[in-house]
Design brief:
Serine Threonine Protein Phosphatase 5, Tetratricopeptide repeat; 0% strand
Length: 159
């Protein structure tokens, strides 16, 4: 049931129908909370998605509050270096970027990169692997977002 509700919310969000998307996403999160508890990764991912929806809607205060809530619970449950915790931190940094809070965004992303070093070591692509695990993309997304912060600050680094 939660998967169906989540799919509905994603479809509505993609169509720009944020009110309907929020309705179904909230129902999804409530279902996860009731069946799996607040500390479950599916519940926290759903709540992170809700915060991201608030961000898309321009409701920055709600998004900020939700991202901080998710980050706190994910850190407690999954750990500070878990891909879900890092995704939440990355999303919070995106919020800061949209609010022109570049210093805070940069600091948060640098922290994410430091925390993701172990994850990157585990994700080294070997010749036998033809694909990359989904959680291995998290550090790459974080690096990309940090690069966008530097671009906005007009700080360029040449290799």
């Amino acid at each position: 049931m939660p998967d169906l509700l989540n799919s509905l919310s994603l479809a509505y969000e993609a169509d720009g129908k944020y009110t309907q998307a929020k309705k179904y996403l909230k129902m999804t999160c409530e279902t996860y909370k009731e069946t799996q508890g607040i500390y479950d990764s599916d519940t926290l991912q759903c709540l992170n998605n809700l915060a991201a929806l608030y961000l898309s809607m321009g409701k920055y205060d709600l998004a900020n509050k939700q991202f901080h809530f998710c980050m706190e619970y994910s850190s407690k449950t999954m750990g500070n270096n878990d891909p879900l915790t890092l995704k939440i931190m990355n999303n919070l940094a995106n919020l800061y970027k949209l609010q022109n809070r570049y210093q805070e965004a940069e600091a948060l992303l640098l922290d994410c990169i430091e925390r993701s070093k172990n994850l990157l070591q585990k994700c080294t692509l070997h010749k036998s692997n033809k694909f990359i695990k989904k959680e291995c993309l998290v550090p790459l997304v974080i690096l990309n977002n940090l690069a966008s912060i530097y671009q906005l600050k007009e700080q360029y680094f040449f290799i």
